[in-house]
Amino acid sequence: MNPKQYIAARAANELKPGDIVNLGIGIPTLVADYIPSDVKVFLHSENGILGVGPSPDLEHTDPNLVNAGKLPVSVLDGASFFDSASSFAMIRGGHVSVSILGALQIDANGRIANWAVPGKSVLGVGGAMDLLEGSKKVIVTTKHTNTEGGPKIVKELTYPITSERIVDLIITDLAVFTVKADGLHLIELSPGVSLREVEQKTDAPFHIPESFKNSKEVTV
Questions:
Q1: Residue 218 pLDDT greater than 50, yes or no
Q2: Long-range CB contacts (within 8 A, 24+) of 128-132
Q3: What Pfam families does its record include (predicted)?
Q4: Element (H, E) at 179
Q5: Could you tell me the pTM of the whole model?
Q6: Average of pLDDT values for 49-68?
Q7: Please, are residues 166 and 106 in contact by the beta-carbon 8 Å criterion?
Q8: Over 90: is that where the pLDDT of 119 sits?
Q9: Is 46 a catalytic residue?
Q10: Has domain 3-213 been given CATH number 3.40.50.300?
Q11: Pick the catalytic residue: 46, 59, 156, 199?
Q12: Measured distance CA(177)–CA(190) in Å, rounded
């Protein structure tokens, strides 16, 4: 399992039966393939689908059936289709239980930047702002560092902020953080990852449980 798959599988374990879940572009789209068989959730795509299923194989790919990121999807029995206005009404009306989003940066307070990189062309903000403001719970899934090896969890955002709403949980290939009023709290280290590595690759301060401080390496 590669790092992105690991992150997606870990995020899938956060879902509860009956959740209506929006999966953002990137790593979040992989979550559909790792939802436990005994957990019945309803995957929502902002381009107008409720009832998205796992990624289809090439033989069963329909070029006209895609998610908001234009990737092929399958649909489950009972799925429904609707226009974009209705889809965003669901989001803005507070009907999405959980949104799983990617991020370019996360700051020390749990706010994210995920829609624009300074100096690069931008197609549009998409639904990220609406999902942050309208979802009951927001989970961020991202690699811990960027392509240059720099930290993505930073003291302050240097990319345009997406929303003032803080996220609830951050899942990376190295660790899991929960976000509280006093900042980021480390709650889990990925298998084979040491606390020292997480500290070295995280720019923002975070709270560390005493049990982690007393161990060179904690695996879960």
A1: no
A2: 128/24, 128/101, 128/162, 128/163, 129/162, 129/163, 130/46, 130/88, 130/91, 130/92, 131/22, 131/24, 131/46, 131/91, 131/96, 131/99, 131/101, 132/99, 132/101, 132/162, 132/163, 132/165, 132/167
A3: CoA_trans
A4: strand 175-180
A5: 0.93
A6: 90
A7: no
A8: no
A9: yes
A10: no
A11: 46
A12: 11
